Amino acid sequence: MPRILHRYILRELVETFVLAMVAYGFVMTLGSVFQVLQSGLGVMFVVRMVPYGLPGSLPWTVPISVLTACVVAYGRLSSENEVLAMNALGVHPVRVLAPALVLAVIALVPLLYCNHFIEPRSHEARRATLKEAALTRPFSLLSLDEPVFDLPGVGVKIYIGDAVGNRLSNVIIFSSSDVKRDDGKGGMRLAPGEFHVIYAREATYEIQGKGANRELHLTLRNCESKFVNPAEPYGYNLMRFDVTSEVISLAEKAFNPGWKDMTTPELLVELEVQSYLRRLANSRTLLPQSEQARYGREQFETFMKAVGKSVQFNGAKLDAIVAAEKARSGGTFEPWNVMQAYADDKLEDPKKINDILTSIRMRWASGLDVLGLALLGVPLGILTRKGRKLIGFGISVLVVAGLYFPLVVCGKALSTNGVFGAALWPYASSIITGTIGVVLTARQR
Fold it and tell me: Which has the minimum average pLDDT: 54-68, 70-84, 270-284, 371-385?
C-alpha cells in the first residue's frame, strides 16, 4: 500500500515539477533574450548565449519548481479529500512527506553538481563569448553614457552618446600613456603621461583583421583633438578637424579566469594560495630586516610551488617583477623583494576573500533550499486545499516573493559583510523554510 501511494504522489509531483521548470526557466531567460536582441547582435548570438545562461538560473528555478510541485500536487490531494482519507487510514504525516523528499533529493543532487562545476564553466564561456562580441561589435553590448569600450592594456576609453549600426554620435576618445619617472629611491616608477582627448559629433567604425592583428578603424567628423600634460593641466594643444581617422589595436589578450569562473575545488585552492600570500605579507613585519634576505632565498622554491597552484598564476607578471628587480639591483635579484612584490600584486583584501567564501556557501545553500521548500510546500498545499495548477503557481510566487527571496538576499548580505555567524547565514533560508514546514506538518496530525 505505501509503495503504491508513494508512486502515485511522486508521479504527480514530477509532472508538475517539469512543467514549473519549463515555465520559470522561460520567464528567467526571456529578459536576457530581449536585452541581447535589442543590442542588435542577432538571433544566432542569442542561440549561442542561452545555454550558457541556463546553469546560472538553476539555483533559483529548481528550488522554486520543487515548491510549486509540492503546493500543486498536495493541494489537489487535499481538495479531493485524499489526504483526509490517508489520515483516516492511519498514514503518518512523515509517509505523506516521503514522496516530496524523494523529489527534493532527485533535484538537489544534480543541482549541487551544476553549482560547483558546470555553472562556473558556463560563466567563463559566456564571458568569452561576450568578449568576442565586444571585439566584433564593440558598441552593441554596453549601455550609453558609460565607458562603452575600455582597453586597460592600451589605455583607451571610448564614450558614445548613441549608436545605430556602425554609426556613432557624440564620441569621446580618451587615451593616456605612462612614462617612467625617478621614484626618489634610486629606481623608476610609472607616472601618468600626456592625455589625449578627441571629441567628434559623428563617427563610423569598422573592424579589420583578426587575433593579434585586429584593429578598430574610426572615421571621425566635426571633431576636436586636445593634448593635456598633467604637469601643466591649464596649458593644452587644441586642434580641429572636419574629418580625421583613428586606429586602435584590438589585439586579443589572454585573460585569467575570474573567481566566478572557478569550480569549488579551484576556489579552495585559491583560498589556500591567498592564505599563503597573507602570511608572506605579514612576515615583513614579523621578521627582522637582517633575516629577510636569507628567508627569501630559502623559501623561494616553496613560494614558486605555492603560487604555481593558483589558476590565476601569472608567469608573465612574475617575470616582469624579476626583470624590474634585476634592473634595480644591477643584474641580480633578491628573492625576498620578488616574493613581496608578487604578494602585494595578487593579495586580495579580506572583504574579497569573504565574498569568495560566501559564493561557495551559496552554492551549497541553494541545494539545501530544495529540501526546505519541499518541507514547506507540502503543508501549504494541504492547507490551501486548491487543486488548480494556476492557483498553486500563484501561491508559490507569493511565498517566494514574501519569504524565500528576502531570506536568500539577507542571508547572502549578512554573510558577505561578515556579521556574526557568517558561515551560517547563507543557510538561513533553508533552516527557516524547513522549520516552518515541519511545524505546519506536525499540526496536521
Answer: 70-84
